[in-house]
Description:
Chain A is α+β, with helices and mostly antiparallel strands. Chain A has one domain (16-415): CATH 1.10.630.10. Chain A is 45% helix and 13% strand. Chain A is built from 16 helices and 15 strands. Chain A has a 6-stranded mixed beta sheet, with helices on both faces. Chain A is globular. By secondary structure, chain B is of the alpha+beta class. Chain B has a single domain (3-101), classed as Beta-grasp domain (Ubiquitin-like (UB roll), Roll), CATH 3.10.20.30. Chain B contains 2 helices and 5 strands, in the order ββαβαββ. In chain B, strand 1 (3-7) and strand 2 (13-17) form a beta hairpin. The interface between A and B is medium-sized, with 27 and 20 residues.
Amino acid sequence: MVGTGLAGNTGEGAHEASGRALSDIPGLDIDPFAIEYFDDPFPVQETLREAGPVVHLDKWSVYGVARYAEVYAVLNDPATFCSSRGVGLSDFAKEKPWRPPSLILEADPPAHTRTRAVLSKVLSPAVMKQIRDRFAAAAEAKVDELLAISSFDAVTDLAEAYPLSVFPDAVGLKQEGREHLIPYAGLVFNAFGPPNELRQTAIERSAPHQAYVQEQCQRENLAPGGFGACIHARVDSGDITATEAPLLVRSLLSAGLDTTVYGIGAAIYCLARFQGEWGRLRRDPALARNAFEEAVRFESPVQTFFRTTTREVEIGGCKVGEGEKILMFLGAANRDPRRWADPDRYDITRKTSGHVGFGSGIHMCVGQLVARLEGEVMLAALARKVASIEITGPVKRRYNNTLRGLDSLPVTLKPV
Amino acid sequence: MPTITFIHPDGRAERIEAETGDSAMHAAIVHGLDGIVAECGGSLVCATCHVYVDDAWIGRVGAVGDDEDELLAGAAAERQAGSRLSCQIKIAPELDGLVLRLPERQV
């Protein structure tokens, strides 16, 4: 394996192989998919950023970018840094994907342009206006319900329960089988990682979740008026084929639920820890949307994605060959002091535009408006109804190769 | 560098200098201008960098794209004849003096 055994070697005249000049790219003995890393990624992310504009991760034989400028540049040059060879470690040019590839996430233009347009229309700002009142009412009801019990787990009873109370209905899913949704999404995001225990275990247990999702994506199983039915309606207008539609519905089920669970969980965890910011939000609930956005920057629920180089390319002055996997550290970019003032501070009035928590460019999260809507209305309801959020028990982390979030956050709420 | 004037809903004018080739949205963000939110950072997803191009300039900023047109339909503030997403207005030397009015709200 080229590139291994170079840990710490940044000197002149180091290896050059397969057209790769490794001499100026530091090789690091860091595993960003290890449990110890997940427990405290921030010092390691600083090491990754400070080592250079591009690093080589020897353990998995991939390159990595952790500074904002390089992450942004890779995200915004899809011709050079393609997605069709997979956005996980696995290279679809060399390995069979664990499931049929996504028609949007794991696709490049021009194929991507057509499918992306369909989902963009289904999840557009105009559609958000139509669902806004319903989502807001459900958030109010959820907060009332939680205030009545006062002590609960903010991960399962709030961060999971709220999206589960609105999103599956918005897609048009049947009631039965919804318990597969969160395990399926966890599987998808674990599968982007390397063949470690998290990925292998998830895939071994995947069959029932995959069967459920495949079934729910069929037209006859999706309620009229929902996002799913709207996608299938694009078959009638000729924008997509009947075989493509279920796979696009699958994208909603893969990426539309767990991500918002982690995003809302991140926001609650931030507001429970940083009482000053909670106080500001209570005084001005109109800050709810930005408080959510800043939590997405600060915690970066989606930590990483890969791209594959389509040609030899120079990144930050370093030469990388064709067919190489590049790991983008979105979380590290979102805390890069080169881009963000006081990056390790959660500041609900920060101007967050440009953070890469939802990605950037043509693959930027197509469901980001749904995520923001859910986050905003939930935080606004809390800000109006709740006086204090206190952490009352041990905080437990949930481990996933791509997603950063909690498994348990015991809290007690006091009403206004 | 070309200068853009943003006019806030209360009538206050704010002049900023923009790099040629940059978008009006990005110039506003770089200067920390209030009133341009730009949630998606210019990836054509969100419609929160909505501006009203001043009548005198409307013919000079290019045409509304198809994707932009759909997004503007969902903008938080009322759509008017001069409505544009400022991420789609590319600053060129001939746009020196451009006047953009800000809507009441972006979200």
